[in-house]
């Protein structure tokens, strides 16, 4: 029995794979050890445990968790301990969401991989492991091209009276947020990255407005310039991307990629389906 997870800062996609190869989907909130305490992680994982026991009581799963914030040893250990608190005695493997995306998108082929969701990350994958990875710096100092970055650029422009009047009116009618409420949610409340990224949906819904399309295109230019084009291999290998922002704005991503001379390959909203195939193929090959 395998339990596979792909977790971003906003959502975690879970897949249960039973011994017969049947796949059962399930989703929970995002689980990021960088932003969450061990007790908060364990509490959120209880929902997964209850769902698992409801369908597979008595079975002990092998757990493969790929998550945002799990790139460092300290955070991997924190996530592993939280999982073991809820699933004692099971086999647990915790890796970064970046490695999960690379395995899902590239399999055993080399390539450059990008994650563009709430946050941003990228790497060069040599077909077996991540051999080079640039630092994303998080939503305050970096995360170029991500939902949080796009939302931050939009809100900063809104607060500085730089939004076109028609778009500004549409925004105010939709959200009814005062300036002080925006600042409070950004600087004082939990998960400001999720708050900022939430406005990327509004931008997508208004993408025919040239202001919104230009904002997204500039965010992707920053992503390419500060990250992708700094990999020595970027001209020889395809860039594959995953994440809601990459998927929703794939037409703009491809257009800006062509502008930069970047070969864009697969673009998927979530890598979880391909990760299931990765482990199912792996199981067959090990038999």
How are the SSEs ordered, and which strands pair?
Elements: E1 2-7, E2 11-17, E3 23-29, H1 38-56, E4 62-67, H2 73-86, E5 91-96, H3 97-106, E6 111-116, E7 120-125, E8 130-132, H4 138-141, H5 147-159, H6 165-175, H7 179-187, H8 192-197, H9 199-205, H10 210-226, E9 239-242, H11 244-248, H12 250-260, E10 264-268, H13 272-286
Parallel strand pairs: 1-4, 4-5, 6-9, 9-10
Antiparallel strand pairs: 1-2, 2-3, 6-7, 7-8
Low-confidence stretches: none
Give the termini separation: 15 Å
Mean pLDDT level: 88
Gyration radius (Cα, Å) is 20 Å
What is the strand arrangement across the widest sheet?
3-2-1-4-5
The number of distinct β-strands equals 10
Structural class: alpha/beta
Strand content: 15-25%
The secondary-structure element order is EEEHEHEHEEEHHHHHHHEHHEH
Largest sheet: 5 strands, mixed
Relative helix content:
40-55%
Secondary-structure arrangement, i.e. CATH architecture of the largest domain: 2-Layer Sandwich
- CATH level-3 fold name of the largest domain: Nucleotidyltransferase, domain 5
Overall CATH class of the largest domain:
Alpha Beta
CATH homology group of the largest domain: ATPase, nucleotide binding domain
């Amino acid at each position: 029995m395998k339990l596979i997870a792909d977790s971003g800062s906003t959502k975690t996609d879970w897949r249960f794979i039973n011994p017969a190869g049947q796949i059962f989907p399930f989703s929970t909130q995002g689980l990021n050890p960088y932003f969450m305490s061990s007790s908060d992680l364990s509490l959120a994982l209880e929902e997964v445990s209850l769902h698992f026991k409801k369908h597979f009581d008595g079975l002990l799963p092998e757990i493969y968790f790929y998550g945002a914030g799990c790139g460092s040893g300290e955070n991997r250990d924190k996530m592993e301990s939280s999982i073991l608190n809820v699933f004692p005695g099971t086999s647990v493997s915790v890796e970064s969401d970046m490695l999960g995306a690379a395995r899902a998108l590239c399999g055993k082929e080399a390539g450059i991989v990008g994650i563009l969701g709430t946050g941003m990350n990228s790497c060069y994958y040599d077909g077996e492991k991540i051999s080079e990875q640039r630092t994303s710096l998080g939503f305050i100092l970096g995360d170029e091209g991500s939902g949080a970055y796009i939302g931050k650029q939009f809100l900063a422009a809104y607060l500085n009276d730089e939004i076109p009047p028609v778009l500004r009116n549409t925004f105010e009618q939709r959200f009814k947020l005062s300036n002080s409420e925006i600042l409070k949610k950004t600087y004082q409340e939990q998960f400001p990255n999720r708050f900022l990224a939430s406005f990327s949906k509004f931008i997508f819904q208004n993408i025919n407005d040239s202001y919104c399309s230009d904002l997204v295109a500039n965010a992707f230019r920053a992503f390419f310039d500060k990250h992708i084009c700094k990999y020595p291999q970027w001209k020889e290998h395809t860039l594959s991307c995953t994440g809601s922002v990459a998927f929703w704005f794939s037409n703009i991503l491809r257009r800006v990629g062509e502008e930069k001379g970047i070969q864009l390959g697969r673009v998927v909203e979530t890598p979880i389906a391909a990760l299931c195939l990765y482990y199912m193929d792996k199981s067959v090959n090990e038999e």
